Amino acid sequence: MSQQETDQQINDGFVVDTEDCEEREAAHRARGTVRPITVVGNPVLHKECKNVTSFDGELAQLIDDMFASQKAAEGVGLAANQIGVDLKVFVYDCPDDDGVRHVGAICNPVLAEIPADRRNLDDSNEGCLSVPTAYAALARTDYAEVSGQDAEGNPVKVRGTGYFARCLQHETDHLYGYLYIDRLSKRDRKDALRQMEEGTPRYETVPNL
Asked: Among 39, 81, 86, 196, which residue has the least CB neighbours within 10 Å?
């Protein structure tokens, strides 16, 4: 992560992730290498990932590779285990419902419990790069807060509304071993897996053994 990112302004304790988005994302991507995407059934997707404990050049390179892989797959968020790495880190390049772009990375994320009076559910469709070509309606809160660390180990908090809130919840779930289809009814999960079986991913995936 660049010095510019670590120097981002903090607003009420939350990282401002809406500035210089194009430049920051492009810089990550230019340094990164595209990796294939793991899909449902790969063991790394179905267990809790290890905490990030070394905030070093290897982590910085992983984040660059994740941005490159996310872009190649036309995603808005990507967790490390989606490229086969057992570490709690995800990246995002995602708009909220107002069309405001958010770009960043967070290590060891923890979702905040949203008070009941602020918990409004949105049952929009959801998809996942690790369940390619499949979509299903899933209720999630339309506001989310995540706390964790940046690529240098500094404590950070990220918040989002609408589609970006869904992204924050979805990617944090990944790092604890949950795919969005794990939150569906048995019938809807079966339908999502059928969609995946019938579809053809538009990006390279890792074959399951």
From this structure: 86
Quick check: 101 and 194 in contact, CB under 8 A? Answer: no
Q: pLDDT tens digits, residue range 126-140?
A: 999 999 999 999 999
Collapsed DSSP state (helix, strand, coil) of residue 193: helix
Q: Is 201 helix (H, G, I), strand (E, B) or coil?
A: coil
Active site residues: 171
Among 101, 102, 35, which residue's Cα sits nearest to residue 69? 35
What 3-state class would DSSP assign to 191? Answer: helix
User: What Cα–Cα distance (Å) separates residue 103 from each residue in 124, 131, 171, 182?
Assistant: 22, 23, 14, 26
pTM (two decimals): 0.93
Q: Where are the alpha helices (DSSP H) in 43-103?
A: 57-72
